[in-house]
Amino acid sequence: MSSPTKTTIHQDPFKAWKSLVFPSVKVSDVFSSVLKATLAIFTVLSISLFLYSAFSNPPQWLSCRGCITVAITGHRKLTNGHQTSSGAYYNNTSIHDVKTNVSHILFGIGGSAKTWDQRRHYCELWWRPNVTRGYVWLDEKPPAEKTWPESSPAYKVSADTSRFKYTCSYGSPAAVRIARIVKESFELGLDNVRWFVMGDDDTVFFVENLVGVLAKYDHNQMYYIGGNSESVEQNIIHSYDMAYGGGGFAISYALAKELVRILDGCIDRYASFYGSDQKVQACISEIGVPLTKELGFHQVDIRGNPYGLLAAHPMAPLVSLHHLDYVQSIFPGMNQIDSLKRIITAYKMDPGRTLQHSFCYDLTRKWSISASWGYNIQLYPSLVTAKELDTAFQTYQTWRTWQHEPFTFNTRPMSPDPCERPVQFFLDRVDRNGKDGSNTVVETLTTYKRQVEELGKDCSRLDYAPLLDFLFVNVSTTSTLDHDAWNMAPRRQCCEVINAKNGVNNTLQVKIRSCNQFESVTPP
Ligand SMILES: *[C@@H]1O[C@H](CO)[C@@H](O)[C@H](O)[C@H]1NC(C)=O
Ligand SMILES: *[C@@H]1O[C@H](CO)[C@@H](O)[C@H](O)[C@H]1NC(C)=O
Ligand SMILES: *[C@@H]1O[C@H](CO)[C@@H](O)[C@H](O)[C@H]1NC(C)=O
Ligand SMILES: *[C@@H]1O[C@H](CO)[C@@H](O)[C@H](O)[C@H]1NC(C)=O
Ligand SMILES: *[C@@H]1O[C@H](CO)[C@@H](O)[C@H](O)[C@H]1NC(C)=O
Ligand SMILES: *[C@@H]1O[C@H](CO)[C@@H](O)[C@H](O)[C@H]1NC(C)=O
User: Fold this and answer.
1) Which of 100, 178, 371, 421 could make an S-S bridge to 110, C-beta 3.0–4.6 Å?
2) What pTM, to 2 d.p., does this model score?
């Protein structure tokens, strides 16, 4: 008896709509009759048009390949739909023949021979030999006496760039070499490449999610996809219009084809720009292609503890993380690589759900639960509004000046007083119950363990005592958040507390599921 379900019935939406559309009907009868007549004619016309197209052969709305896919899958990105001017739909190499998969991506990782041995651990977390395609581009040949690790991408040595201008006083001319990786990758002329994805040697990609995000877009059109910095000062100094290279970005084949023709000239024209990513963006702006922002790319331009940022991930699949050497470990008491490995165990079970939020209330005990799946659970001894739960705790400072603001998203302070904080649980293990048979429900179980504070650091107030009785939170889900779910209108999932009494074996049981109609996180 602890359902968080709360239904709110809104006023009749059709009524509101009517008053918007016919605001002046009462004002003038003449106007009203004209409007009625127009509507009548319009209705007759629409019906006849509908009948015509339905019974003509072939039906008009099925007469192009793009439209067929729209009709069948229902939720293809609009950009793949009815825009027929390019002709891309009418030949046999359109995206509708084969869905974009990992083999269509060519990665270009900016590395250097001297630092690869330290940085490769990040790359090797996500690189899958013989599955992911691409190269790490080095400044020089690695020492001959060392064998190149099999778990790393193969390397290529970048072409000499000494002829290019670089005039940014506080940067490194290596930016020129790294900006040219997209061109050198393109010029390899490899088969079946739809996307060129650039990343740093310390970028961790979440490949399935990256593929899912790119598959929404038509690589035969010119796309430049990535994300901004989290830091306002970085965006001001560099650009709000660019995809930050550490978070990684994707350039469609069609765009790369045009970009490589002008890139070398741009590099000299924008010699004063600090970074490779900024030079590439300047060049793309000459072509006239804007950045398509995807919220799952993370530059992680912050200092301190990334906890607040990760536990409030936006409603978009997690695509990348970066700067992991510059922030504290994602999990308390673990090193960064082991922390990432732990998140990846959850990620492998349900890539699209990783870090996704769900909130619910236990109305009998007046508690709030905020889950960031695969990472963290926050338990509050009060009913906290969804708006507040949605806002990131500020557990970090700005990248450049270590200030408390500003960021490109809203934050709320994390009080040092344990009685003004939630009780925290971090991912401990991941299990899967049931078999993948046709009739069996497959349940993914993630277990989160309470962060045990030093003696006397827990809140000793009475209302916190029952929360601190729990050592674990077990969260079950019975479906994955796959790409099909992500191609629909986004909505946060709902959750509910299952055990009514204090939990079996100090465990709070929570179930995450899709929300019902009229269900919302609304206090009574
Ligand atoms: C498809 O055909 C059009 C027109 O024939 C051509 O311009 C375009 O390059 C083709 N697209 C691909 C990907 O082959
Ligand atoms: C292209 O597609 C059309 C319709 O699906 C098909 O009839 C034609 O044979 C295809 N052409 C090639 C070269 O595959
Ligand atoms: C990806 O698509 C290609 C066609 O371009 C296909 O040959 C290949 O089998 C697919 N790979 C995977 C892993 O689905
Ligand atoms: C990758 O493929 C090559 C050639 O097919 C093979 O020799 C190698 O063992 C494979 N590596 C892995 C890690 O599967
Ligand atoms: C919680 O999950 C863990 C790990 O799967 C499991 O061992 C434990 O029995 C679960 N606890 C309860 C009370 O179900
Ligand atoms: C609770 O703990 C006991 C003893 O460790 C164990 O036998 C039992 O299976 C656990 N119950 C659940 C639901 O995990």
Assistant:
1) 178
2) 0.80
